[in-house]
Amino acid sequence: MSNKQIIVTGGAGFIGSAIVWRLNQLGYDDILIVDRMDETDKWKNLVPLSFADYVDADDFIEDLGDFSQSKAIFHLGACSSTTETDSDYMFRNNFEYTRDLAEFAVANGVRFIYASSAATYGDGSNGMLDGYEDLGKLRPLNVYGYSKHIFDQYAARNSMLDTIVGLKYFNVFGPNEDHKGDMRSLVNKAYEQIRETGKLQLFRSANSAYADGEFGRDFVYVKDAVDMTLHFLDNSLGGLFNVGSGKMNTWNALADAIFAALGRERQVEFIDMPEHLRDRYQYHTQADLTRIRAAEFNNDVFELDVAVADYVQNYLVPGKKLGDESTAG
Fold first, then answer.
1. How much is the pLDDT for 110?
2. How high is the pLDDT of residue 328?
3. Which residues, in sequence order, are bridge partners of residue 243?
4. Contact between residue 230 and residue 23 where contact means Cβ atoms under 8 Å apart
5. Of 163, 245, 325, 329, which one's alpha carbon is 20 to 30 angstroms from that of 133?
6. pTM for the complete prediction?
7. Which tens digits make up the pLDDT trace of 167-206?
8. Euclidean distance between CA atoms 318 and 179, whole angstroms
């Protein structure tokens, strides 16, 4: 294990704090957390974790020269709201910040692993293969997806993807997402809904090709997403890689898993999908894991019902974060 510092941007956020948790389990604590502490409670994600220092994201980017000897940068910091409409903010925060950080890392030989997104694939009609030869064919459905997509294109155009890693996260769920508001996973929202009302609301299909509840996503447990991410810490591989379960599970299947984890009978009510989502809604996502498997990531991933049970029973019900669990795996 190198004694060089590891930097995690967005380190107080959902996936970022989960990476710090797993790094702690692997024996790393010389970790620099970079983030912006807004008015959310994401600071609570840091309480059980071990790290060396914290720096505000704006201060960090201004003083990059101080970090040229770092072992690696995991760049998870971004605005991840798929409903955000402030394009200027998205481009500055998600594209320009990532570009500047990547150029610094490449120039100084610092390992750089960053969060792209499955939102770059749009409706999936042009495939969800994670190579970067056909990036020009992709058509994201929202400005968040596009802000991620243009950095993927920039990195490919400038031969950065020979040495840096971009990870196209699919629908990640799990502990430490409480602060995300409307961007929380359905599992997190459903837990509150079912506890308060005894039932779960799901969107009715607005696409005649899909029955209500029979469209879905590639839902990937955050523990699997973290293991896929950290797989690239100690190798020199570069490129774009999907991070998912490799399966499409329907919203009905997810609902069944949540009710089962809570030991309750299924009670689902279908409601109309809001107008502002209908033209930019992904009805089917499924990660092709061929490339990450070829990169020798050989771990099995959680089955949906097992992951949901772990999340609900070991974190949501007892109100625990990653790092302060006693019975969770």
1. 97
2. 44
3. 169
4. yes
5. 245
6. 0.93
7. 999 999 999 999 999 889 999 999 999 999 999 999 999 9
8. 17
Cβ neighbours, 10 Å, residue 202: 19
Is 144 tagged catalytic?
yes
Catalytic one of 54, 71, 132, 180: 180
Q: How far apart are CA 23 and CA 281, in angstroms?
A: 34
Catalogue the long-range contacts made by 291-300 (C-beta closer than 8 Å, 24 or more residues apart).
Answer: 291/130, 291/131, 291/239, 291/240, 291/241, 291/242, 292/130, 292/228, 292/231, 292/241, 292/242, 292/243, 295/231, 295/232, 295/235, 295/237, 295/241, 296/231, 297/227, 297/228, 297/231, 299/224, 299/227, 299/228
19 close to 181: Cβ distance less than 8 angstroms: no
Which of these, 84, 8, 57, lies nearest to 280 by C-alpha position? 84
- Please give the pLDDT value at position 279: 77
Q: What is the pLDDT of residue 276?
A: 83
CA distances from 201 to 112, 131, 145 (A): 40, 36, 26
Neighbours of 3 (CB within 10 A): 7
195, β-bridge pairs? none
Residue found by looking up tokens 């591989």 in the block:
237
Catalytic residue, from 28, 97, 144, 221: name it.
144
Chain centroid offset of residue 138 CA:
20
Angle at CA of residue 298, ends 296 and 301, nearest 5°: 140
d(CA 125, CA 19): 32
User: Is 180 a known active-site residue?
Assistant: yes
List of domains in the chain: 6-171+219-245+285-301 (3.40.50.720)
Residue with tokens 């220092």: 53
Which residue type does 170 have?
F
Q: Which residue numbers in the chain have pLDDT < 50?
A: 1-2, 327-329
> What is the rounded distance in angstroms from the CA atom of residue 37 to the CA atom of residue 56?
8
**pLDDT for the residue 83:** 66
d(CA 217, CA 184): 15
